Amino acid sequence: MSLELINRSPDIMKLRNEGYEVSIHGAYLVITNVPYVDQSKQIRRGTLVSDITIGAGKAVRPRSHVVHFAGSHPCNSDGAIIQSIRHASSSNVLGGVRVDHSFSSKPQGGYADYYAKMTQYIQIISNPARAIDKTVTAKTFKVCEDIEDDSKFLYLDTNASRSHIDHIANKVKGQKVGIIGLGGTGSYILDKVAKTKAAEIHLFDGDAFFQHNAFRAPGSATLKELNLGMQKVDYYASKYGHMHGTIIPHNIYVDATNLSLLDELDFVFIAIDRNEPKKIIFERLISLEIPFIDVGMGVDRVDGALTGMLRVSLCTAKNAKTFMDSKRISFADEEDHGAYNDNIQIAELNDLNACLAIIKWKKLFGIFHDNEGEFNATYSININSIYNEDSGA
Description:
Blueprint: H1 2-8, H2 10-17, E1 21-25, E2 28-37, E3 43-51, E4 54-55, E5 58-59, E6 66-70, E7 86-94, E8 97-104, H3 114-132, H4 158-163, H5 166-169, E9 176-180, H6 184-193, E10 200-204, H7 211-214, H8 223-228, H9 232-240, E11 247-250, E12 267-270, H10 278-287, E13 292-302, E14 305-315, H11 320-325, H12 347-364, E15 376-380, E16 385-389
Parallel strand pairs: 9-10, 9-12, 10-11, 12-13
Antiparallel strand pairs: 1-2, 2-3, 3-6, 4-5, 6-8, 7-8, 13-14, 14-15, 15-16
């Protein structure tokens, strides 16, 4: 992917052809061995890092004029910091490179391409070093190895790189995630998980994808797709397989005969409205100390409008006994579940339930701060409030 990006981007290719130590680290452009002067007036070598804006498979006009730098702050030949580019100093990890500073030098109209951007900064940083020793140069003609993005995405996550949060997003990297149930809420959970660096996403559902499903699912199904009569797992695997390369469909209902399929997973989302199978699923995951989230939704008709609650319940080894002993989750299927049993599912409620579950998952693994550490949360529609229970923080 990195070589293809360079070959399609004349500006980046020009940098490499002229001898700069250019490499692509995921969605970042990296130039190493850039000479500069430190505060003790010594010539050092540093690294420039810039996020890459990509369109049509190649680098396009940079959206940002800022670059990042690994090394001490570059100085003039007299040891005074170069103030003209001074921006901020803080440690961060971008594309696997730990950077120490960011620089800002914006020409009128911005930079036309990455060649203009990077050579401008190299000139500013390296000119004081060349004043001390005219033989020093960033053009070493050394061939650098590109660092491929080893996530399962089929194209680079430039959303994370442009926000410089890819090292935070990596906290769920490599996880094998299961989603049991691809109804309204489960499909929205998939929509979010597919945009993470999870190594594998396993889908479990034995239902077909019908026309009514299209009205409570993310995106929009074509009439042709509806007429194919696809199974839910196959429909969603094909949709999200355009982005994430390892989505594994299991066209089954999870029951006592196939529980072993869950054994190698790192995390599981359970989004089924049938209560009876939940007990054996919970017990299996708890016995293997696999954390999971169970979601629930109850909707009723009141005075000609809909109201109800959404629930997100997290189970880890820390609260497993309390989780199973609580009365929040029934393990018996009743004949009448109210409006929900009448298949009244509302896309925005399904999506909100999924979002709350995804946020809790990301909190568990440190992507988001979690001051409450709650294991159960309920959202009430009519009063617009979220109530946390069993706080563990």
